[in-house]
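Now read this:
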Amino acid sequence: MRLFSVGTGSATERPAAEESAAMVHPSAPIPVIGPGIGEAVRVPLGEGGLQVFPLMLGGAEFGWNTDTASSEAILDRYAEIGGNAVHTADSFAAGRSEHIIGRWLRTRGRRDRTVLAVRVGAHPDNPGLGSVNLVRAVEASLTRLGVERIDVLYLDASQDDGSPLEDTLATAEWLVDAGKVGTLGAFGFSAERLVEARILSSAGYPRIEAIDEPYNMLRRTVFEGDLRLVAGAQGLAVTPSHALEHGFLSGRHRSKADARHGVRGMQLRSNINRRGIKVLRALDLTAEELQVPVAAVSIAWLLAQRTVVAPIVNAFSIQHVDEIVQGVGVALSRAQLAELARAAS
């Protein structure tokens, strides 16, 4: 069953549909007919005034495993449903992801209706968060995207070169004042660094509004500690990446033979173990109860976690988009959450 479905069935199809609807589990999401129904579903991204769909479409696959035509079809479907937040990074596919998203924004006339989030700091040409490289990275992303402004700039500290945070935020302040950046997010920041950033914001530096930390049912240790406490205390919007653990939590890959070769195959195979299969079985049971895809349950689990606002999910097909957006409309019961937690422990 689809939460956000488009189109209507024929007169001959309706009786069968009504009969099957009578057998639907009472906790299943209500299907809504009509394009763009997701446009009414928005949540605040921090305190900067941005309103986003509770699921950000990631562009990590664009230009890598997904060609331009397929990428644009995925973006079209997400927008058709009512999604409005797209995330990419200057390091995704060596910048090709940004090229594809920028072309789509331009040809579809979607720029003013899309919250554009970009992560910088890991591109080999401009690594780290030093002042010079940060400005160069932002300018390069703006050029590839063909836009004048990045709505949410995620500062990627994964390749930290030891640059003082004060210098990074001072440079970010200049970018904001110049109209090149709207608000700030953080990726790979420790709890201590977030506290330091808040102290600097009280002295007049720009405030970090969102954090991206890889987080899902299988990857919990790093976030479910000081990071979550700091995020809650500071009112940060958590937009976790790797929401489906490289696709494993979509339930599509259940044996090592199913996993593809290459980097993605290695990532998938690393989770095909006793714990991973146990989690998939728990997801299967909940998905069957609610009559939704496994991927939707994985997204619903994330949205049920404190401080999580909008998971970042990379899609590789239109069907995948249809599956993951259903997670926005799934409300897991306490019993279901407890069972999933036990499986992931």
Summary: The chain has a mean pLDDT of 89. The two ends are 29 Å apart (CA to CA). The chain is about 40% helix and 15% strand.
